[in-house]
Amino acid sequence: LQAIAYNSARGEYLVVWQVDTGGGDTDLFGRRAKIDPGFNWLGDKFDIAVDSKPERAAAVAYNSNDQDFLVVYEQELSSTDVDILGQRVAGWSGGGDGGSELRGSAFGIGITLGIESQPSVAHFPAGQNFIVAYTLENEFDSDIYARRVARERPDLAAAVEHITELYVGQRYARAAPDRNDELTRAVARFRPRPHSQEAPGKKKPAEAG
Questions:
Q1: So what's the pLDDT on residue 119?
Q2: The whole model's pTM is what?
């Protein structure tokens, strides 16, 4: 199990998990569930992020404005280049494009030549958008960034906003909404990372626009 979110309008859950498909590849799948009165799966599992490149570390949030979900995750391009992508998932079975489970296609949220990792996502009903917080690592340091994702055009994410700087070897971000819809509610959470895992040979990338 990677992540789970609750659709309050339908009393259903979206469960997201990661599968090792072999050869160093991992993919993300989803399935709906309901507790009424016991736990019951609804429908079959479906693809969320299935590519030849590893997708992992999913997080998900429910959008109460449109009754759908945003799943964010890592996609590894190389050992020194990892991006954060997003994928909208319909709030009910068959509610996606052409009767599918997905709305639109995957889109970039954090894409540089560094390592974006550990995404976290929250939905702000008042602002009618999502906020995605994540860590950006390079050979110099590890910083927390965040990006808003609009409900109208999720393929066009807002500019990246630099939240806070961390010492090298420490990371993790968590997005959490509050009643004032403050972007600074992307709260940094820290955990030491072994020096051997640092990305070599990376120059600090400029913030994306």
A1: 93
A2: 0.79
